[in-house]
């Protein structure tokens, strides 16, 4: 990533500056709105998983923070947050704190 976004990402990732997660999520949501028609919006935002050891070291997943705020901006504009079916492939998400970001809209 180029300046200034590279520094913003590093600030969120390594300095736990959570307002930058909201900024990056808002910027991502704005790009979705500007680049896609509403019928082409994503149905689900699923952040990249983080290894459990790394998650314990940092205490949060920066990709989840960005996805959460992006989703907050897009909910009601075509994006729905849904709880995924419980299956073995998602166990690392659920056990890494992602259950805070996944919820059923009904």
Features:
about 110 residues; mainly alpha; 5 helices; disordered C terminus
Description:
This protein is mainly alpha-helical. Helices cover 50% and strands 0% of the residues. It has five helices and no strands. The chain has helices at residues 5-15, 18-35, 52-58, 62-74, 91-94. α1 packs across α2 (18-35) and α2 (18-35) crosses α4 (62-74). It is globular.
The proportion of residues forming helix, as a percent range, comes to 40-55%
Helix/strand class: mainly alpha
| Terminal CA distance | 38 Å
Secondary structure tally: strands: 0
Instruction: Report the major sheet.
Output: none
Low-confidence region ranges: 83-96, 101-106
Order of helices and strands: HHHHH
Radius of gyration: 14 Å
Count of alpha and pi helical runs: 5
Give a nutshell description of this structure:
The chain is mainly α and 106 residues long. It is built from five helices and no strands. The longest helix is centred in the first third of the chain and has 18 residues.
List the SSEs and their pairings.
Blueprint: H1 5-15, H2 18-35, H3 52-58, H4 62-74, H5 91-94
């Amino acid at each position: 990533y180029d300046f200034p976004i590279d520094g913003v990402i590093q600030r969120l990732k390594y300095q736990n500056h959570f307002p930058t997660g909201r900024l990056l999520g808002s910027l991502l949501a704005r790009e979705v709105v500007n680049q896609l028609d509403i019928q082409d919006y994503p149905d689900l935002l699923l952040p990249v998983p983080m290894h459990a050891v790394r998650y314990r070291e940092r205490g949060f997943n920066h990709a989840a923070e960005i996805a959460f705020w992006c989703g907050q901006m897009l909910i009601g504009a075509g994006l729905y947050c849904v709880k995924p079916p419980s299956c073995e492939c998602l166990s690392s998400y659920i056990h890494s704190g992602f259950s805070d970001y996944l919820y059923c809209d009904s």
